[in-house]
Structure formats: C-alpha cells, structure tokens
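Field log, afternoon session.

UNIT: design team B
ACTIVITY: writing a sequence onto a fixed backbone
BACKBONE:
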C-alpha cells in the first residue's frame, strides 16, 4: 500500500508539473535572416556605444534558454524563407519556394491552424507585407512563394483573429499578371475590419470581430520603413505587438492565444549588406520582444516566448583580415539612413546642375558620417571619388540590385566603406546554411534546450501549449 501511495504521489507530481508548464499564451518571434552573428554584432555594437568592449544585453538573448537549430530545406542545404517558414510553422521540410505544402505539393496543416481549431485566438504579424513568405507560411498553401495574390486569398479563409503588416504586394493581380478581384472586399466579406494605421486601429478596435492592421494608405505597402529611416507616425513592430495582444485579449482569450511576430526587415538589410540598418532592425525586433516579455511578467506561469530565425542572410563575419584582430562597431552609429534611402538622395543629387565632388562629399558626410567624425582612409575616399567620377560624368547612373532593392553604385561603395570601418565583412547577398539561434523563456521553455532541427521547434511549442499535434 505504501508503495502504491508513493507511486501515486510521484504520478500526481509529474502531472502537476506538466500542467504548471502548459503555455496558454504563446509568442513566436521569427527574425528573418537573423543568424548568431547578427545578434552578437548588435550586442557588441551597443556596448561600444557605451565606450566599452563586450556586450550590452538585448532582451531575448538573455532568456533562460539559448540553443540552435539546423535550417536546411528538403531540396538544399541552403533554405529560402518559404521553405524555412513552412518548417517553422508546420514542422515539415519542403522544397525551396514552397509555402505551406510538402515536397509533393500537398497542403500541410500549420500549428496556427491547429491552434485555431483548438479554440485559441490566433495572430499573424510582420514588418513586411502579409503575403510574404514567412507570414504566408502560417496561413496559406501554395507551391510557389511568388504567388502573392493567391497567397493573400488564403487570409480571409483562415478565420484567424488578427493580422498585421505593411499591406499586400499584389492585391488585385495574379502571379501571371492578370487582373483579379481585389483582396480587400474578400477580407471585408469574411468579417474582417481593416485598419490603416494605429489611430484607425484604436478607433475600430471595439466594434471589430477580426482585424487586419496595415500601414496608412499613403505609406509603402511593401514593408514598414527601416527603423533607421523611421518617421513620426510610422507603424512599428512593437506597436503591432501591443495591438495584437490588445486585440487577442479583448474577449479574455479563455483558451489563450498564439501570436507569430516576424522581424522581416532584418533579412532585407542583410540581403543589402547594410550593417547600419541591420543592427537597428535587431534592436527594433528586440523592442517588440520586450512588449511580449512585459506580458509574460504579468502571466508568468502561462506564457511562453520563443525566438528563432528561418535562416541566416549575408554570411556576416565579425572581423576582417585587413583590420587585424579588431572590431570598430561604433562606426555604424555614424550611418543615419539606410543604404536604400542614401541611394535616393544620390539620385536626387543628380537633378542639380553641375554636381561636384564636394556636393557628393557633403551628402556622404551628412548621411554616413564620412569626414565628420568618421575618418575614412585615403584608399576609401579614392573608391568613393572614382565611383562618383564614373557615375556622375555625363549623368551615367549605374545601379546594383539585391533581393529587395536597387541602389546607386555610389551608395554601394559607401556601405562597403562603412563595413570596412566597422571591420565587418559580408560573404554573400543571399542566404547561408549557418545554424540559427533559438531562445525561449517562460512556461515549458526548457523543452527548447539543446541543438535541434527547425522542424522540432513548432512541435515543441505544440507540446508545451497542449495543442494536439
């Protein structure tokens, strides 16, 4: 009898431990393109701003659990965001460019869809467009990621409670360029309220049953503005996170919620090899994580926060042979605009008559800090001046193209000069097969200890949140 009693006590203790660790509220942050070096560079950059060597902790790298995951797809060791997003949303490996389908192009059920069926409220948010690869991988099922319109048509069918992002890339054009019924009436007919900007969200929130929050009508629908370029009134990822929590908790969320938040422009900055914009994007996503962490502190036994990435972008190297065993990350603080915006200023400069090298120097000094606090070398100045002479003579503009933008060659040279100043190197303008970080805090966070495959992350979330897989 005593043995039976002891066994009973042990079983009940185990059950109580499991119940105590069950996550009612789950935050799933995906830093698109965010490798370990992107995180480490940002923390060291912040420390150098304080005049010291070391790191200044961001919020999420200080979580109780820090581990890593493989990121390969079923078709290649280097994944794209669609296949990576599908692995992170459904726990299924698939081929590059596939979204929400397996290697045989069969739809796979995502955790978000499972959570909705289980009675949880669901939110999908991003700093880029809602029909992009990562957010789309949680609600859409299409064979190719470039089917933006077709992806968007899945949104109203999902019945998820909250969506937020910049907007839609092709709201009324199919993948082959044909006219199609606009996505917004479909969203409206499915019972969603569309709010353009934070003020409109606040005005419409109470009466809305389901919500789609996007940028204001006069803003860029491709993505939120880079944090380094942000203007007053721009929607931010932290505001999106706050709004999502506010909306998902509006009806008390008796069975809890699942909220995915993508820091999508980390990837864009890394594709552009724009280190100055990249560190600000990491900080910006961390600000959104802080919003979730404040929620966790109010609901510590019921909340789980998981942060990971779909892949690393850019092959970022902290150190370069020409710089010796040194970093000079404080140099990035002199950059005041993204390279994309710098390129636009250079294009505008062309509109002046008789543009001189002194005019170009003044612009580069204002936007990049060259010669104004940042002492560039003679060789670096020669690179800039040679590019100016080549591209401004007879107004012969030349552009370099990356995944998400085209930039004037003078802006391209400027970004590599500041990377040299910081002693950073980029090995590619694309993705790499590097491990991606995994961070976790809150209920059940220790399930995420140890190296894992990216398909395991969402399965562990299901286990901890009690959603049947």
């Amino acid at each position: 009898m005593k043995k039976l009693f002891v066994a009973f006590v042990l079983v009940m203790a185990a059950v109580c431990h499991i119940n105590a660790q069950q996550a009612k509220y789950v935050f799933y942050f995906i830093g698109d393109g965010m490798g370990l070096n992107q995180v480490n560079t940002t923390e060291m950059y912040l420390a150098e701003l304080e005049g010291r060597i070391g790191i200044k902790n961001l919020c999420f790298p200080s979580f109780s659990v820090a581990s890593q995951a493989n990121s390969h797809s079923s078709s290649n060791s280097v994944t794209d965001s669609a296949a990576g997003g599908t692995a992170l949303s459904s726990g299924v490996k698939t081929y590059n460019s596939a979204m929400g389908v397996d290697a045989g192009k069969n739809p796979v059920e995502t955790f978000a869809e499972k959570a909705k069926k289980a009675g949880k409220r669901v939110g999908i948010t991003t700093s880029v467009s809602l029909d992009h690869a990562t957010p789309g991988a949680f609600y859409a099922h299409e064979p190719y990621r470039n089917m933006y319109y077709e992806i968007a048509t899945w949104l109203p069918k999902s019945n998820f409670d909250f969506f937020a992002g910049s907007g839609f890339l092709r709201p009324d054009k199919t993948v082959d360029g044909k006219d199609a019924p606009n996505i917004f009436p479909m969203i409206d007919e499915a019972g969603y309220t569309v709010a353009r900007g934070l003020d409109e969200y606040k005005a419409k929130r109470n009466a809305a049953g389901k919500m789609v929050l996007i940028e204001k009508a006069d803003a860029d629908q491709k993505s939120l503005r880079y944090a380094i370029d942000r203007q007053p009134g721009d929607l931010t990822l932290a505001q999106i996170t706050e709004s999502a929590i506010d909306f998902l908790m509006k009806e008390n969320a008796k069975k809890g919620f699942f909220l995915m938040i993508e820091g999508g422009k980390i990837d864009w900055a890394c594709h552009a090899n724009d280190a100055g914009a990249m560190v600000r994007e990491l900080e910006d996503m961390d600000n959104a994580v802080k919003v979730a962490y404040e929620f966790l502190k109010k609901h510590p036994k019921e909340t789980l926060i998981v942060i990971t990435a779909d892949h690393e972008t850019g092959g970022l190297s902290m150190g370069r042979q020409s710089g010796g065993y040194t970093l000079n990350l404080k140099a990035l603080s002199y950059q005041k605009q993204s390279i994309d915006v710098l390129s636009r200023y250079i294009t505008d400069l062309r509109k002046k008559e008789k543009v001189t090298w002194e005019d170009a120097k003044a612009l580069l000094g204002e936007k990049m800090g060259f010669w104004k606090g940042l002492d560039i070398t003679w060789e670096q100045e020669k690179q800039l001046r040679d590019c100016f002479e080549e591209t401004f003579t007879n107004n012969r503009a030349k552009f370099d193209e990356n995944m998400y933008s085209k930039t004037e060659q003078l802006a391209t040279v400027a970004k590599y000069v500041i990377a040299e100043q910081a002693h950073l190197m980029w090995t590619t303008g694309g993705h790499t097969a590097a491990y991606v970080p995994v961070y976790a805090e809150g209920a059940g966070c220790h399930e995420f200890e140890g190296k894992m495959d990216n398909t395991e992350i969402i399965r562990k979330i299901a286990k901890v949140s009690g959603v049947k897989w």
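LOG NOTE: Residues 328-422 form one domain.
NEXT ACTIVITY: expression trials, pending approval
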